[in-house]
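Tokens for chain A. Residues wanted.
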């Protein structure tokens, strides 16, 4: 049975048609990626399914008892309470049960009738059973695990949600949805407010998610790993393709090529038939045949080729060649209040490198870009540039740097006042501003359109050292792909921040990872870096978060040579024997404390579970609720046991992970 069925839905915004008689069926297990240009209706379709937009024609049928969770691109609803508690209170059905429990408990206290008290007691026992079932289905430690995965720290659990910044509120909203385990997840650009570590965690979490999902994302790699079906908004309407995004691109290309070939073949047949008709229609012997061909042509249903949709297209011009060393970051330190972002950074970028700055939100990625760009000053140290270096800076909030009163063409023209207006209009056209669009003021443009204006300004006058902060924000997946290809051909040096894994993986030749008030530098791709990081942790015994201020390229790579060489000297063999003994001792000393803690936790968990079973048996007797002196303390104890069990299970899970990780590191 389908979870959601969209039937013959049409929708117009003012005079613009968004949907015309579209249909969609979402089944359990479907993982659908919505793709199409900005403004094609991806977000609108999600909101229609969620019931936020009234339909002009058509209807949406939702399966009974199906739960739908929706993450919009921006949230405006105020959430009360602390972070962890807001997740616990969001458990489906919990609030209703707790309200019913309060009502029945009030009735129990107010009604002296013994028979009524027994009935109330039975209701209370049933409600507690339901609450217990919910606690088993939605354990507290699962909520904590999700919050930590999305970048929160345990100290944040008691923070009021209202005190969080916009980006962290979005993470809290995402955590709530993931914890609720809906039957259908609607995710609109879920990675927008995440950092690379959180995105990597989310990739794995969603791959294990059992429900159905409809996803909008401009991150090609993220999309490819999550979906088994693509629904695309094409010029001819909404289309569906099995497979991930890469498969869709190939299938669409083959489909277009096939239809164009068939249309071309048909055109040739029509031309041949018309020539035959013109040549022989006046000849008596061929007249009937000519007439037959004429009827055939008239009845022929013309094959329509797909109208090609306009996409942004550009490449960066050749830039002035800089010196080999482009920028020097020497002894740079920066803090905000008591928060030290980095201390005594010493780095350099070389000509032609494409460097990605990564790290958790709040670690100082944007700040470092701003320090290099000269937008803000470092507390200590200095930034210096090499020979013939010219800097271009694409800010994260680039739209704030645009003049809302200027037109598109005026905003771009001010960067190159000596260029012809025709040249500027052509550049604007490459970014889909053609005709009267170039005369629109910046203030009326959408976020995606403003991003295109900022890119156009960068294109007409690029420096040979480009700094970019989240350049794919507000771009659709096609525009992001175009930008990636353009930057691959850029001949200057690139230093950038992006949460888009596909963007980082396909562009970066070097990684700067901000950690522990320093930076780990790695020569290579993002995926390779994380693989090396795991290997380094296993060989060095370092915890992932402990690396700081390793500045040399390749400093993460700890070389380990095999010890069984036939030409080893006796001293080497003795040393190897000693090293193996030391390693065994290290394994014992490292694993023993964790194993002891696990045994202690398992004993406590076993004792609590035994007592929980005893209390449940007592509470299963409805007569107990007639005796308040016995029932109230038992209910309190039962609640305390469940909370303590959740805490112990969470600790056990973390120690179990530590044990497995330590084994891999020490024995690997």
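Reply:
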């Amino acid at each position: 049975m389908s979870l959601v069925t969209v039937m013959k839905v049409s929708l117009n915004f003012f005079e613009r048609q968004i949907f015309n008689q579209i249909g969609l069926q979402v089944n359990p297990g479907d993982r659908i990626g919505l793709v199409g240009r900005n403004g094609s209706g991806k977000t609108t379709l999600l909101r229609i399914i969620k019931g936020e937009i009234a339909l002009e024609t058509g209807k949406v049928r939702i399966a009974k008892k199906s739960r739908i969770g929706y993450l919009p691109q921006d949230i405006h609803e105020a959430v009360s309470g602390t972070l962890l508690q807001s997740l616990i209170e969001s458990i489906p059905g919990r609030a209703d049960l707790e309200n019913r429990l309060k009502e029945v408990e009030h009735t129990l206290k107010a009604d002296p009738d013994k028979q009524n008290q027994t009935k109330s007691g039975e209701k209370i026992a049933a409600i507690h059973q339901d609450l217990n079932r919910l606690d088993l289905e939605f354990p507290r430690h699962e909520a904590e695990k999700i919050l930590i995965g999305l970048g929160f720290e345990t100290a944040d659990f008691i923070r009021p949600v209202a005190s969080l910044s916009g980006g962290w509120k979005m993470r809290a909203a995402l955590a709530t949805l993931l914890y609720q385990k809906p039957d259908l997840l609607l995710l609109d650009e879920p990675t927008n407010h995440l950092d690379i570590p959180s995105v990597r965690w989310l990739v794995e979490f969603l791959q294990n998610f059992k429900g159905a999902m409809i996803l909008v994302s401009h991150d090609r790699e993220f999309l490819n790993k999550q979906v088994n079906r693509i629904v695309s908004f094409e010029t001819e309407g909404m289309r569906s393709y099995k497979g991930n995004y890469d498969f869709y691109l190939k299938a669409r290309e083959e489909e277009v090529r096939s239809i164009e070939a068939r249309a071309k073949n048909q055109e040739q047949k029509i031309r041949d038939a018309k020539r035959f008709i013109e040549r022989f229609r006046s000849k008596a012997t061929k007249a009937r045949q000519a007439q037959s061909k004429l009827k055939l042509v008239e009845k022929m249903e013309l094959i329509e080729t797909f109208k090609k949709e306009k996409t942004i297209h550009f490449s960066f011009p050749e830039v002035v060649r800089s010196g080999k060393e482009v920028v020097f970051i020497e002894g740079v330190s920066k803090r905000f209040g008591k928060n030290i972002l980095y201390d005594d950074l010493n780095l350099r970028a070389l000509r032609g490198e494409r460097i990605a700055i990564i790290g958790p939100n709040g670690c100082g990625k944007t700040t470092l870009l701003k320090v290099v760009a000269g937008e803000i000053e470092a507390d200590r140290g200095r930034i210096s540039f090499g020979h013939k270096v010219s800097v271009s800076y694409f800010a994260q909030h680039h739209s704030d740097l645009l003049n809302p009163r200027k037109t598109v063409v005026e905003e771009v023209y001010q960067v190159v006042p000596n260029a012809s207006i025709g040249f500027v209009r052509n550049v604007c056209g490459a970014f889909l501003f053609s005709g009267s669009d170039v005369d629109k003021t910046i203030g009326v443009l959408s976020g995606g359109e403003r991003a295109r204006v900022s890119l156009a300004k960068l294109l007409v006058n690029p420096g040979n050292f480009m700094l970019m902060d989240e350049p794919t924000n507000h771009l659709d997946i096609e525009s992001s792909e175009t930008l990636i290809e353009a930057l691959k051909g850029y001949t200057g040096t690139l230093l950038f921040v992006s949460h888009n894994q596909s963007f980082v993986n396909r562009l970066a030749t070097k990684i700067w990872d901000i950690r522990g008030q320093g930076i780990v530098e790695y020569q290579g791709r993002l995926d390779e870096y994380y693989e090396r990081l795991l290997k380094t942790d296993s060989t060095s015994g370092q915890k992932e978060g402990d690396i700081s201020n390793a500045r040399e390229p390749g400093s993460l790579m700890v070389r380990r040579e095999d010890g069984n060489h036939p030409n080893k000297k006796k001293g080497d063999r003795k040393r190897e024997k000693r090293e193996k003994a030391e390693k065994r001792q290290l394994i014992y000393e490292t694993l023993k404390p964790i194993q002891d803690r696990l045994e202690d936790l398992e004993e406590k968990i076993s004792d609590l579970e035994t007592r929980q079973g005893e209390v449940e048996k007592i509470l299963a007797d409805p007569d107990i609720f007639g005796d308040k002196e016995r029932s109230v303390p038992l209910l309190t104890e039962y609640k305390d046991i469940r909370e303590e069990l959740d805490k112990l299970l969470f600790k056990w899970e973390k120690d179990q992970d530590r044990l497995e990780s330590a084994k891999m590191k020490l024995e690997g």
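The chain is about 45% helix and 20% strand. Residues 99-132 form one domain.
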